[in-house]
Amino acid sequence: MNGKKICAILLTCFVFALSSHPVNAQPGQTVKQDAKDAGHAIGNGARDVGHGTAHVAKSVGHGTANAARTVGHGAADVGHSIAHGTREGWDATKHAVKQVFHKGD
């Protein structure tokens, strides 16, 4: 995620946080408290975005690892099959040569 997307998400979280609280004209509430509440809301939104990004990154990483492991195991299985097929072909060739030349009787 690039910086522009992160800033847009944080700004959206900030606007949502401000719009989700009813506006009260209480005499005891100050601009400082409003700024503090907005800062907390932005921090919470940023933390949620960070956790979501980390979760997606872990999921992608684990998926990639599983795919690589599957490909590796498939390649190993193919290698073993080729080796067994080669051995069986060699044995069949050896047997056919012995039959033709009557060796080993």
Explain how this protein is built.
The chain is mostly helical and 105 residues long. Helices cover 85% and strands 0% of the residues. The longest helix is centred in the middle third of the chain and has 71 residues, at 31-101. The radius of gyration is 34 Å and the shape is rod-shaped. The mean pLDDT is 76.
> Which residue ranges are poorly predicted, with pLDDT under 50 across at least 5 consecutive positions?
none
* DSSP strand count: 0
**Which structural class matches the secondary elements?**
mainly alpha
The major pleated sheet works out as:
none
Order of helices and strands: HH
Q: How helical, in percent, are the residues?
A: over 70%
Keywords: Signal
Topology readout:
Layout: H1 3-20, H2 31-101
Helix pairs in contact: 1-2
Give a quick rundown of the structure.
This protein has 105 residues and is mainly α.
Structural features:
single chain; 105 residues; mainly alpha; 0% strand; rod-shaped
